[in-house]
Design goal:
Blueprint (H helix, E strand, L loop, with lengths): L5 H14 L18 H14 L3 E5 L4 E6 L10 E6 L14 E3 L7 E4 L4 E3 L15 E3 L8 H19 L8 E6 L13 H4 L3 E5 L6 E3 L4 E10 L15 H10 L16 E9 L3 E10 L2 H22 L4 E9 L3 H4 L4 H12 L5 E2 L7 H7 L6 E2 L13 E2 H15 L2
Parallel strand pairs: 3-8, 3-9, 9-16, 10-15
Antiparallel strand pairs: 1-2, 2-8, 4-7, 5-6, 7-17, 10-16, 11-13, 11-14, 12-13
Helix pairs in contact: 1-3, 1-10, 3-10, 8-10
Bound molecules: zinc ion (ZN).
C-alpha cells in the first residue's frame, strides 16, 4: 500500500481531465506546433500550476509550459528537470476521447463500448492480468486514451501539488516542462534550455511501470535518387537505362536479414519506407537504425558503396545518396553522467520496485536533448497498449510514479 493514498485520486482525476482535451499532433507540414489544439492543454496546465501556487510560464508561440519548484531544506541544490509531452499520436482517432474508470478490475475481458460491441480481450492482451484488482482508466473503444503521455503529466502535476502544499518537505529544485509534438519527431525542439534552468533532466514517457531507458537508436534517413534514360522500347537496345532496374539492384545489395521484421534487441536495420519509380527516375527512401555508433556509420557507408559500385559500372553518376541525420543514441552522452541512471534506479527501488531497462528501439525527446546539452534518460509513465483503442492506464502506476519522482528529487 502506498504511503500516499491521496496520489491515487489526484492522478486519476487529472488523467481523466487531460485525456478529454484533444491534443493530437500531425505529421510536420511546415509549422510547429503541428496542431493548435495542443495549446488547449498547455493553457489548462499553466492555469492549474498557477492555482497550485507554483511559479509557471507559458510560451504560447512555441506551445511549451514551464513550472519551477524551488529547492527546500537542502544543503546543496542540484536542479533537475522533469519533462512530459502533451500531444497524442496521429495513428488512430484521438478526438472526442471519453475516458472512464473501471474499479478493481476483476480479470477477464472488459466491455469498452456496449453500443458498438467493442471488447478489450484478456486473451489478446496478456498484460491485463498483471493489473487484477486495480482501478484502470480506459477508452470507449473508439479512440486512443492518450495516457501516452498524459499519465506522466498527471504524475508531474501531482508531484507539483505535493511539494507546493508540503513546504516542510526537503527537495532540490524541480523544473517542469510540458512540450508539444513528441509523437511526430518534434524532439523538444522548442524547449528553451536556458529558461528551463537545469543541467540534467528525465523525460517521463513509455509503458510498463518501473522501466527506464538510457539507450536509444542512432537514426538517419536516406533518399536514393536514380536517374535512368527513357526511350521508346522498340528502339531501346543499347540506349535505355531503366531506373526501376537499378533501384531493384540497389535494394538487392542491402543485407537481406537486416530489416525490422527480422531484428530485435540491440540489432540495427535498414527499413525501406518507400519506392517510387519509372524508367526515367526512381527514388528509394529508407531509414537506418543502430545502437552502436561505429556500426551506424558502417551502415551509412554501405549505402554509399552500393551507389558507387553501380555508378562505376555505368561509368556515370546515375545513383545519388543523400543522408539526413535524425537523432543519436543518448547512451553516448549518458555514460559520462552515470549518476543519472544510478539515482533513478535508487529512486525506483526506494518506491518498492525492481528497476528494469532495455535499449529503446526508437528515439525519444531525450535523445535530442542529451545532445543539445541536457542529458535526459527516460522513466516510464506506466501506460499500456499506447497508440491504440485498447490503451489503458492502471491508476496505481501513476500514483507509484509520483512516489518514484519524490524519491528522485527529495535530495
Ligand atoms: Zn510518448
Amino acid at each position: 500500500m502506498s504511503e500516499h493514498p491521496e496520489f491515487h485520486r489526484q492522478t486519476e482525476e487529472r488523467l481523466l481531465r487531460y485525456a478529454a482535451v484533444t491534443t493530437q499532433s500531425k505529421h510536420f507540414d511546415g509549422t510547429w506546433p503541428t496542431t493548435a489544439c495542443q495549446r488547449d492543454l498547455a493553457k489548462l496546465l499553466f492555469a492549474e500550476l498557477h492555482e497550485l501556487g507554483v511559479r509557471a510560464a507559458y510560451d504560447e508561440a512555441r506551445c511549451v509550459v514551464y513550472g519551477w519548484l524551488p529547492a527546500a531544506h537542502v544543503e546543496e541544490d542540484r536542479p533537475i528537470a522533469l519533462i512530459a509531452h502533451m500531444d497524442t499520436a496521429p495513428d488512430v482517432k484521438g478526438r472526442d476521447v471519453k475516458p472512464w474508470v473501471l474499479r478493481a478490475y476483476p480479470g477477464g475481458d472488459i466491455l469498452l463500448n456496449e453500443a458498438e460491441g467493442i471488447v478489450l480481450r484478456a486473451a489478446d492482451y496478456p498484460n491485463l492480468a498483471q493489473y487484477i484488482g486495480q482501478d484502470l482508466v480506459l477508452t470507449d473503444g473508439t479512440t486512443l486514451l492518450g495516457g501516452d503521455d498524459k499519465a506522466a503529466i498527471a504524475a508531474l502535476m501531482t508531484l507539483a501539488e505535493y511539494y507546493a502544499s508540503h513546504p516542510e518537505q526537503p527537495h532540490r529544485t524541480v523544473c517542469l516542462a510540458f512540450t508539444p509534438d513528441e509523437e511526430v519527431g518534434g524532439l523538444a525542439r522548442d524547449l528553451d534550455l536556458e529558461r528551463l534552468g537545469a543541467r540534467f533532466a528525465y523525460t517521463i514517457d513509455g509503458d510498463h511501470l518501473g522501466w527506464y531507458q538510457d539507450q536509444t537508436f542512432n537514426a538517419c534517413e536516406a533518399a536514393v535518387t536514380i536517374t535512368g534514360r527513357s526511350v521508346h522500347p522498340a528502339t531501346a537496345k543499347g540506349i535505355m537505362v531503366n531506373a526501376t532496374d537499378l533501384a531493384v539492384e540497389f535494394l538487392n545489395a542491402l543485407p537481406p536479414l537486416e530489416k525490422p521484421q527480422f531484428t530485435d534487441g540491440v540489432d540495427g536495420f535498414y527499413y525501406v519506407t518507400s519506392l517510387q519509380s519509372d524508367c526515367e527516375r526512381a527514388v528509394i527512401r529508407l531509414i537506418v537504425r543502430d545502437f552502436d555508433r561505429k556500426r551506424f556509420q558502417e551502415r551509412q557507408d554501405r549505402l554509399l558503396e552500393i551507389a558507387h559500385a553501380i555508378n562505376e559500372r555505368w561509368g556515370q553518376k546515375r545513383v545519388l545518396v543523400e543522408i539526413h541525420q535524425q537523432y543519436r543514441n543518448m547512451g553516448d552522452v549518458l555514460e559520462q553522467f552515470p549518476f543519472l541512471v544510478s539515482d533513478l534506479e535508487a529512486a525506483i527501488r526506494a518506491a518498492g520496485l525492481e528497476p528494469k531497462s532495455e535499449p529503446f528501439r526508437g528515439g525519444t525527446d531525450g535523445s535530442a536533448l542529451s545532445f543539445r546539452g541536457l542529458p535526459s534518460p527516460n522513466l516510464s509513465a506506466g501506460y499500456e497498449n499506447a497508440h491504440g483503442r485498447f490503451e489503458f492506464v492502471p491508476v496505481p502506476s501513476m500514483a507509484k510514479n509520483v512516489e518514484i519522482l519524490i524519491r528522485l528529487t527529495e535530495k
